Amino acid sequence: MVQRKSTKRNNSDTQTNHVFIKTVSYQGKRIAKATLLLVFSIFISSGLLRFLGCFDFTTLAGLKQVTTTIIKPPIKTLHRFPRQCGVVQNQTQPVFEPRNSHSRSSTCPSYFRWIHEDLRPWRETGVTRGMLEKARRKAHFRVIIIDGRVYVKKYRRAIETRDTFTLWGIVQLLQWYPGRLPDLELLFDADDRPTVRSSDYRGQQHPAPPPVFRYCSNDANLDIVFPDWSFWGWAELNIKPWAKSLVAIEEGNKMTQWEDRVPYAYWRGNPNVARTRRDLLRCNVSDQGDWNTRLYINDWATEFKEGFKNSNLENQCTHRYKIYIEGWAWSVSEKYIMACDSMTLYVRPTYYDFLIRGMVPLQHYWPIRDLGKCRSLKHAVHWGNTHLDQARKIGEEGSRYIREEVNMEFVYDYMFHLVNEYAKLLKFKPEIPLGAKEITTDSMGCPAKGRWRDFMAESMVMSPSEVSPCVMPLPYSTLELKEVLKRKANLTRQVEVWEDQYYRNLTNPNKH
């Protein structure tokens, strides 16, 4: 009996303990779940706050994060148009949200300062309606921006589709910085060479020059320089939009290490567009001699038939040195050549685009004489092959400049500041002229076909910038501008001194 009670008690104790253990286990699980949920919530919340720029997640790990510059997020683009093209407009109408107050923009690259110089002729007089109408006969089209909408009136046909992709770029600018563009009217000439001669407008007795936008200018002209159409793609030659080309060239750079590259100067292009290019072909390797160059004629008609298989830009980063030389005017090949990490041998130009004026000889490129270019090229390659580290540094610095200071974010910033500074000069109220048509992503992208459509899709801005434009630098003072130009001239002269000495030593080796 006692034994039975004891057994019963023991059974009862066992049951009691079993219930207690289950209760503790259940409560433990609840606490564990609650703890996990709390930790997960903190993780998600901190991640969200970090995304919003309000929380530094690294402090949870006891790390200190130091931020000195704001890196702009890449431009978001769409890689295809939807089947129902009418919805493109709804998908690409961004709403601009101001940056967080604690964020700050970086200062624009130095070449932005030339915007002030390009607009200097109208600083005192402003731009009147009469001046603009005088520019009408030089223009392919007129751009009007009113209340954040873009209109165009075309006057004459441009080469290929330069005008189309230039206008496409302007539409994308308004997508990137919606609500930030002023009302304005401007006239654009899509041909190569500048036409507004400064000599025609010197002296107080002459009127102010007509303001004409174009892709390049030179020291003898006053045309206002604007980024060229190829930044959004050159469909006729299968050259992809700049953002995509830049990524491809960067990958191409990795295929051949610099020290393993062919130790000669490379150029591929069309020599028939200019005398200076035809003259360049005399420098090619032949039975008569070797000028340290490897030059190739690009037959675009054949390339078109063969699917452009020999003209992929990313496959042309195999030589230590690459030659840039102008065509009929400046050449869009400039940025693709300089992005290759090869030391760019820059044949002395007559024209400039918007980006070259920020580059410095011996820092971003090696200057080459236009007259006597064969001797100059031979010496440049010899110097590079005997100063490998310095040559590589020049090539990489030029490439870095192109990648970091001429990426699409800065291209849009340059356009933004240029048109804003220009709009400040207008002495009349912009209006939509008779015959002008509004252009949008829909109206331009939906009718496009083939590569034209693909390139528009690849370069279409899908959301606005998360940061404001870079901060516009102040204009050069007269003294500063003289110093900049003097420094570039002195560095170019130094290279010519080295070259002359090199050939004197070859002629008189005993005097070396």
Summary keywords:
512 residues, five-stranded parallel β-sheet, 15 helices, disordered N terminus
Alpha-carbon distance between the two ends: 124 Å
Helix fraction by DSSP (H/I, runs of at least 4)? 40-55%
Radius of gyration: 31 Å
Beta-strand fraction estimate: 5-15%
Main sheet overview:
5 strands, parallel
Q: Based on CA inertia axes, which overall geometry fits?
A: globular
How many beta-strand runs? Answer: 13
Structural class category: alpha/beta
Overall pLDDT score: 83
How large is the count of helical segments? 15
Low-confidence stretches: 1-40, 42-70, 89-104
Can you write the helix and strand succession as a string?
HEHHHEEHEEEHEHEHEHEEHHHEHHEH
The strands making up the biggest β-sheet line up spatially as: 8-7-9-10-11
